[in-house]
Specification:
single chain; alpha/beta; nine-stranded mixed β-sheet; 6 helices
Amino acid sequence: MNLLSKIETGRKPMPRRTLVYGVHGIGKSTFAAKSNNPVFIQTEDGLSEIDCARFPLTQSFDEVIEALKELYTTDNPYKTICVDSLDWLEKLIFDLVCKEKGVDSIEDIGYAKGYIFALSYWRKFLDCLDKLRNDKGYSIVLIAHAKIARFENPDTDPYDRYEPSLHKHSSAMIQEWCDEVLFAVYKVHTKKTEEGFNKKRTKGIGTGERLVKTTERPAHIAKNRLGLPDEMPLDYEVYSKYFRQT
């Protein structure tokens, strides 16, 4: 059989690989909990107020991998794997690298090589998720906090933007792997007020409305492969209308 006979055409919908990141307490875990039959692998303690299926709090990277293997090798009712959060998973990975290299801090490994060593564990983690998605049909939702970081744009002066609270190398790897990177944020309006002496002050006014940004802008990292609107409610049910839920 030659390679030409193996060519595929048309769309081939697959379970989504989604990263949602945003400020603390905005509702990222609630977003994930509305996915299709989710089970959480929790690397931080923050799910006690959400009615969801979850593994016990993991204390090591190996425990995270064991949970993924358990999902792969057993029959279970779950359809979506949610990891909450990547920030704390990164801490577990750094702890493992430090233990292997006999240092107290990832920064103690010269020439920033500690962060490069950590990437091998991130690859193992993503490879496990790929097998679960490709072989078992699981959707994936990854959760991370947001940070403000300086972006050195070669076309403009440097500026600040929101991005996942991860090291730049692991963040880039995960963003590339995901189908969607969604930035969760409160909707804010600005209003200028007079302060006298021809001075004006700009105030931020919040409505409490929670949104996800789906397209990259100077203020934040985001992407999608579904042609999503630039912003939409922070609601997995709304998001899922744009793809075939399995």
